[in-house]
Amino acid sequence: MNPATELLLSALILLGAVFTLIGSIGLARLRDFYTRLHGPTKASTLGVGSLLIASALYFSLTEPGISLHEVLVTLFLFITAPVSAHLLAKAALHLKLHSLARRPEQNNED
Amino acid sequence: MKRWLPHPILSLVLALVWLLLVNELSIGQLVLGALLGLLLPLFTRRFWPDPLCIRRPATLARFVGLVLHDIIVANFQVARLILGRPEALQPAFIVVPLALKTDIAISLLANTICLTPGTLTAELAADRSHLLIHALNAPDPASVVDEIKTRYEAPLKEIFESC
Hints:
The complex is a heterodimer. By secondary structure, chain A is mostly helical. Chain A is 75% helix and 0% strand. Chain A has one domain (3-94). Chain A contains 3 helices and no strands. In chain A, helix 1 (3-29) packs antiparallel against helix 2 (33-62) and helix 2 runs antiparallel to helix 3 (69-94). Chain A is elongated, with a radius of gyration of 19 Å. Chain B is mainly alpha-helical. In chain B, 56% of the residues lie in helices and 11% in strands. Chain B has a 3-stranded antiparallel sheet with strand order 1-3-2, covered by helices on one side. The longest helix of chain B has 27 residues, at 57-83.
């Protein structure tokens, strides 16, 4: 690998690590359950995303053939992350957890 | 045709996912992928009562690009909010009235909302008239509703509900 690719890959990995870290910091810093949900579901999509791009590039460049596993990881991640966030939020609403935002009227609670 | 291949797009996606999973392109794996794509939709037929209809591939491609772009922008915004002053955030529950009718379009909209700028889908009304979303920082809830409706809902309606 030439230095330029190495630089690009390192930048992607660092970016990924930074965003994953920020997602976790969000868990600690934000103040109610609903806002905490935002940290890991958002800030980590780009975090994991750039790590996966770096991985795909690295293995495509260093080994014969192209590596496409990472596309699948991205796909599964983007399908499952919102669903789990949605279910957690729904459960929290159902349990009437403390919320900083004004809670909506519970007119269609089942 | 309809009987043995009820969901051609699903079959194609399944075969493609299989090839990506084994990470190799050979005749054997192609046959296996095609077999999976043929059999799984047949066995899970009751899970997909409605045929999928996709119109305007150009709009679909533009929508995917838009969402990817928004995810990247959203990450920077959320990162700034998290590292800024959490006390100053104005989280809010917002009701978004739905114009979409089909299951696939509604679930895609809900997922898109979950993936993009500081918003989270919390609940879908039992009669499907609106979505309840939670915003991380929404000083102006009306503009959030407006953005979701024009940016995401309009193209989804065009793609999945024009036939």
